[in-house]
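Annex B. Sample input.
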Amino acid sequence: MSDVAGQAVAFQIGPKGRSVLPVSIRRAAGFVEGTEVVAVVLGEGRVLLETVDAVRQRVWAGAPDPAAADDSTTDVRRMREDDVAVSDAAAVRRSASPESGGSDDRGAALLSRLGL
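Annex B, continued. Sample output.
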């Protein structure tokens, strides 16, 4: 950035709605011939010009760092493992229960009465 950073430089819109950015502004912004820019209308009478690279950097700066971010797949797998452990523990308790055999017998009797 040069000495015009943060300063206002006035220029006019010419024929057919064209304008030429003053050299001091282009230099301060790092615009050279062929630089791709994006114009964003911020409101009535306000336009923001940014290079495509600046937009890309701004977007990526707002994205979470993959190395620091929590891995949702790992979280889901961990929760699933916890669920399986709880389910397995309940199955072990049911199989160790003295009522478990009776429950199977009652179920078989019910199915028999239903003709199944």
